[in-house]
Amino acid sequence: MKREDAAKKKRVRKQKKDAKTDTKAQVPRKKRRSSNTVRKKEVKKDDVTQEKFRVLGLERSFFAMALVVVCVMGFWVVFLWDEPVSPEGRVVEFSLVNDSLDDDDVSENSSFEILEEQYAQIVLCNEYLARREYNESIECLKKAYSMNEDNVAVVVGLADIYFDVGEYDEACEYYSLGVALNGRDKRLRYNYALVLERVNRSDDAIEQYRSAVEIDEGYVMAMNNLGVLLQKKGLLNESRDVFERALARDSNNILVLLNYANVLSEIGANSEAEASYRRVIEIDAEYKEAYRNYAQFLYNNGRYAEAKDMMDKAG
User: Which of 81, 96, 160, 265 has the most other CB atoms within 10 Å of its CB?
Assistant: First the structure.
């Protein structure tokens, strides 16, 4: 009996255990996402991202292009439309040092023998100048100057050479001595005015240009430079008068005509200024500075298309 009861209990336990196992098997499992579905969604997300990048790329490209255009226009306005420098016609009137001697060159402080030695140094100086050996030519003239400080040719020669090599302070010193020795030399005063401009002594330069014009009322280049300096100092009416005097001597001088047009424009005489600009171009159609100045005039008066055309011709 005991064995039968034990076997029966064992069967019952087994049946219960099998029933639990069947119940677990019948519980529905949660569905797992298909890997294909996930990949499809990720692909769609990548497509959207790529499209966004494509749009952003186009936007950035357009922005970069716009930025380039703005920069170019800015450069054009700031640099090309900056006030052009007036053509001043600054030409240094150099010449070889006087190499002739006569009795008038003999001063109270020198004998003819000393003058002959001085003459030899001058000849040697000119030989060095021909070879552009400026330091040697200066040394020769300094020796000549030490023999006779009253020889204007030597003094002015030293001034000219110092000017030519860019030593403006020394040039000023010798031009000043030259003017003291011979104040009636228009070329001397003209060159002296030029070097005074280089060292920013514009008032003294104006005085020298005036003196040069007093010596020679037809000295057009001196009048041109004088007119430009007066314009820079704001003396517009006087500047205009000087240019008109110069044009009375040489009506086709394009430097004077162009500077005259610039002064008229600054005064506000626009019709006369434009006529003068056109006259310059009529005389010399290849003169680039005329187109630049005329373009500035047109731009200042709101005539932008015409101004751009003039700048294109200026190159």
Answer: 160
Quote the pTM value.
Answer: 0.68
Residue 156 buriedness (CB in 10 A; 0-12 / 13-18 / 19+): buried
Residues 6+ apart with CB under 8 A from 12: none
Q: What is the DSSP letter of 27?
A: S
What domains can be seen in the chain, in order of their start residue? 92-97+108-187 (1.25.40.10), 243-315 (1.25.40.10)
- Tokens coding 24: 């677990």
DSSP 82: S
13-15-20-22 Cα dihedral, nearest 10 degrees:
160
**pLDDT per residue as tens digits for the range 128-173:** 988 999 999 999 999 999 988 988 889 999 999 999 999 999 999 9
Considering only CA atoms, which of 151, 148, 167 is closest in space to residue 109? 148
Contact 96, 129 (CB under 8 A): yes
What is the C-alpha separation between 202 and 186, in angstroms, rounded?
Answer: 18
- Nearest partner of 118 among 93, 89, 150, judged by Cα: 150
- Looking at residue 76, the DSSP 8-state letter turns out to be I
- Which structure tokens are listed for 95? 């010449």
Which pLDDT tens digit goes with each residue over 25-51?
A: 454 454 455 544 444 444 455 554 555
- Tell me which DSSP letter residue 7 carries: H
